[in-house]
Amino acid sequence: SQQGEEDPQALSIQEGENATMNCSYKTSINNLQWYRQNSGRGLVHLILIRSNEREKHSGRLRVTLDTSKKSSSLLITASRAADTASYFCATDHSGNTPLVFGKGTRLSVIA
Amino acid sequence: GAVVSQHPSRVICKSGTSVKIECRSLDFQATTMFWYRQFPKQSLMLMATSNEGSKATYEQGVEKDKFLINHASLTLSTLTVTSAHPEDSSFYICSAPDSGRGTDTQYFGPGTRLTVL
To answer: What is the per-residue pLDDT for B92?
Structure first.
């Protein structure tokens, strides 16, 4: 079953703006990961943040994790039209357990 | 990085036929693989865990006799959708953790889009 919610469900912004997506989960986790999925395609791994980490950066991506609130956020700065995709958070209890995905946010970046 | 492949990438079949989907870890051994299903505009839902050398474990609501899983070797798991019906049309994705690397990253296959007519 899906563990959590993501909000917003859909987000439409202008190119150059920042996009923030949030994810909440229900149980304790080992890691939280963010993935991107272009329409009809497979998943692209973006970033992994461990439960003992609070913030992580990768290029234009910034991920935060608040385990006390059981929530995470993904910030994409200076968005581009190519960032248009669905973004999912996923949590696990250990490296060998399946991932539990959020419902996802559909991001549209308008050029 | 580790690579997981799936075959076929796309399949169209008639209602009542069976379809086999392969998931291979190309440069690492995977004692465990996971099968997910994604309906249009929805998220990924875990269907089953494939275990090399033992029976697969299925999530609640997933019929094990309809979705046959065989983990034939340390690099191959197959999912067979038996007597497929239009409601089985979906995007099927497998993943495998590479425990040998000591990381927590799971590697996803590119997915198989099944359309049942």
So the answer is: 98
